[in-house]
Design goal:
The structure holds two protein chains of two kinds.
Chain A: H1 9-26, E1 31-34, E2 41-51, E3 68-70, H2 71-75, H3 79-82, H4 86-90, E4 93-103, E5 108-117, H5 125-130, H6 134-142, E6 148-152, E7 159-163, H7 168-181, H8 188-196, H9 207-213
Antiparallel strand pairs in A: 1-2, 2-3, 2-4, 4-5, 5-7, 6-7
Chain B: H1 4-12, E1 15-22, E2 35-40, H2 45-48, H3 50-57, E3 69-72, E4 75-76, H4 83-90, E5 98-103, H5 118-137, H6 140-144, H7 147-158, H8 162-172, E6 187-191, H9 215-222, E7 236-239, H10 251-257, E8 265-271
Classes of the chains: A alpha+beta, B alpha/beta.
Amino acid sequence: MEEDEFFGEKTFQHHCSEFIKHSQQIGDGWEWKSSKDCSDGYMCKTHFQIKSGTVVSNPGIYNGVQTCLPVEEVLEVPLDDFEVTQTAMASEVIKYEYHVLYSSSYQVPVLYFRASFLDGRPLALKDIWEGVHECYQTRLLQGPWDTITQQEHPILGQPFFVLHPCKTNEFMTPILKNAQKINRNINYITSWLSIVGPVVGLNLPLSYGKATSQDEVHC
Amino acid sequence: MTDDKDVLRDVWFGRIPTCFTLYQDEITEREAEPYYLLLPRVSYLTLVTDKVKKHFQKVMRQEDISEIWFEYEGTPLKWHYPIGLLFDLLASSSALPWNITVHFKSFPEKDLLHCPSKDAIEAHFMSCMKEADALKHKSQVINEMQKKDHKQLWMGLQNDRFDQFWAINRKLMEYPAEENGFRYIPFRIYQTTTERPFIQKLFRPVAADGQLHTLGDLLKEVCPSAIAPEDGERRNQVMIHGIEPMLETPLQWLSEHLSYPDNFLHISIIPKQTD
């Protein structure tokens, strides 16, 4: 419909496309998915993590503390040390999915996320928190958002957790105003995701911020 | 001559006769009788089925009971959708009573949201109301209300108190004198034939020339298949609260009178019955 708004859907899609370009350059895994009727879509990223802390035969590798290791690090372990525990590990691989959608009602992006084991069993919100660094847990409690709730994904129709969007403008407006003042180009999606992402275990490499300053993009 | 206000009462007090039957694979200590109930169209399943839960739990052992969920003809029922919407969309072409199957095991995690408490229903309901007001008034009216007003809206719904609810809700149905309606109309259009759960877009109640947009205008713009083909026999019914409003009805009027308590128009597109 109309684009008389500050951050309309077309603007959202444009910023996502710029964001994805950079993601492709650094292999960060974000991609665009169109809805079946192609009228809209969303940006998404999936990553896998191994949750340790289950029964392991070689205490040299893990020190028994609950940590989340990226898959690549685990594969660096010498194979014979790893063989015995390999089957036990498969059940503890967790798939994290992050989707960025546009809310026409609030005219802002919204972050949807969910986590599940490979066999499809979903993780509850408290299990997801265990993977989030402590300092971000505090930020979550203090942040300018009401809550994280389980909601229906507006395009897929499946349950996801959502960071409620109604206060997004509150924290984004000062950032955008300031960028305008110092005449710096920023990508709305990059700025927004760098604030809300870490709270739910999603980190953005710094190169995203540098990439945008070189673009022709204006918000 | 019916007053427009009577429509508000008819919508609020709509009921669906329902028969709840326990799923055959649930483990019971004795035979479970079906349970009959009149469900309010404007409410939510998990808000009005405490008696159903108690009835079936009486014949089950505690260890065989986990979160309750409902299903109709194999389709898990989304408790966060209003009851009237679920019925219109899934069961309106079948004979009454509405036959719903009750489950206490194998919660379908991929399909249904969890409903851990009444607070979850309240949070969902208020979230919908806030979104509706974001569309109608840029959230100005709902944000100006006090917490006790928000509580009154919820309590009105929970306790089936029409006057208590509308004492506050009428403020959400007002608009500035210089306008002819809300900023945008809160609506969702549902079809069982699409993967997408619903269509929701920005749509103004008044055209640039000041003419009021109709239901037909909305459908033509956001869901043309609903009213196809324009010349000839229509394939679908456009239903809200169990009725088919005329396509010429102004959308602003529909929004003020036929919205659900969450202030959204929940519209079902269902295939026309050929019999």
